[in-house]
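Entry 14. Structure prediction run on the chain below.
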Amino acid sequence: MTDRITATVPMPGTAESSVSERLPVLALLALAMTAFLALLSETLPAGLLPQIARDLNISEVMTGQLVTVYAIGSILTAIPLTALTSGWRRRNVLLLAIIGFLIFNTATALSPNYMVALASRFVTGMAAGLAWGLMAGYARRMVSVEQQGRAMAIAMIGTPLALSLGVPLGTLMGGVLGWRSIFGIMSGLAAVLVAWVLLAVPDYPGQKNGERLSIRQVFMTPGVRPILAVIVAWMLAHNILYTYIAPFLAPSGLRPRVDLVLLVYGVGSLAGIWLVSQLIDRWLRPLVLGCIAAFALVMVALGLAMDSPAVIYVSMAIWGITFGGAGTLLQTASADAAGDGMDVAQAMVATIWNVAIAGGGLAGGLLLDGYGAASFPWAMLALLLAALSIAWRASRYSFKPGRRSGGPVAGH
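Output returned:
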């Protein structure tokens, strides 16, 4: 195992070239589309809750479990599936995940009853877990070390697009076409994506037996655990507010305008991912520290003036900017730290992220019932200060100062 990734220039006619001098934009956008489908498949039932409940003759609470069981599918299977497929050719694994979206979103669209829908959602979540474990390493492998941050930003742009545009648009279309048609449309997009991947995405070999690291070895790699701890604290704070944004907006009178508030957040998140794409390879550590610190300051402002519409709108914009590039920052840091265990580390990131989504819903609900929405900013501030402290101290292996060197070689 070498100590660093070597930025080689591909020789003409070599099928296994690992990097390219120019960004392979079409291939990276195919990964972005995969991320878009994964997140849209997860979150869309929340926007279609009343329609699904009426059609399947169940309560809205039961319908909400279609989101929960998807997350559970990702949580339980992302790490073992990624480890199991680490020796497979990379494009085959990517296609397997996308075909999973195609088949099981179709099964959801055709579900005759609630139990079939639940089972379909669980397996779709498994496909998502496999995709999340693969995409970061795939994007990095296509480019030189100096371009990895930008490549990751392009590959991850599907995430904020799904949240800011996909879910509202899908919800609007669902009101016209019906919820089953929307899941059918997502299956159609997956079919198009299969062809896109076959045409535009390069293939790479999987890891050889001697190169594969166990799940325990990856977890014990210096730098990986602090990054996972930062993800827990940062994402838990994020999801407390994101899950319960409607009741939080009530004191400011903006609850009826939750769509506009989330649009401001979504535009901010797109700006954030653009900003990160431009700066990540030079200033990963300052970006991580700056984003967490700015989000913490937003919580102070909201805690002191959550009844002010102006403060709400400005805070939502800054929150979006600080969060838009978070996935790129954290996945890049974990991939740099994990080296040969990159894909397993990304599966850990996906698992912890989904745990934080579920935990944010649970913690936010307890806070809302016990202390009201006014308690959100202060609880979130405590979590963000913990994340900031961990990231600040983890400068040796996790969030290194200076220009990125690419970390240990990713030999898969």
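Residues 1-20, 406-412 have pLDDT under 50 and may be disordered.
Filed with the rest of this week's runs.
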